[in-house]
Amino acid sequence: MAIIAMMGLRYQPLNCLFNAEEILGRYPSLQSADIYSVIAYYLRHRTEVDTYLKDREAFRVEVRLENESRFPSTGLREKLLARRRH
Question: Could you please report the per-residue DSSP string of 74-86?
């Protein structure tokens, strides 16, 4: 079972189960009630949330590949190091 971190930080499926207290330990600025609300929402809407996350991941990959083709990084490190030397 995957619990997701969707407390306004980032939508990311976690490969292991974290309980509310463990999430609070990792993100102390959150409120316990909010964490439980997110977990409850996920458990009630698991299929929809998982589909949304898969779609967003596919879109992220698509955008990354498009950006890499439009703005190739070949020689970028060397260019930046040369700038630093001047």
Answer: TTHHHHHHHHHH-
Note down the domain range covering 22.
4-85
CA distance 69 to 72: 6
- How many domains is the chain partitioned into structurally? 1
Q: Which residue type occupies 80? A: L
**At CB < 8 A and 24+ separation, what contacts does 1-4 make?**
2/50, 3/39, 3/42, 4/38, 4/42, 4/49, 4/53
- For the stretch 26-60, pLDDT in tens is 889 999 999 999 888 988 998 998 899 889 999 99
Residue 43 near residue 31 (C-beta atoms within 8 A): no
Q: Report if pTM > 0.70.
A: no
> Any residues with CB less than 8 A from the CB of 8 and at least 6 apart, and which?
none
For residue 14, give the H/E element and its range: none
Question: Distance between CA 1 and CA 75 in Å, rounded?
Answer: 43
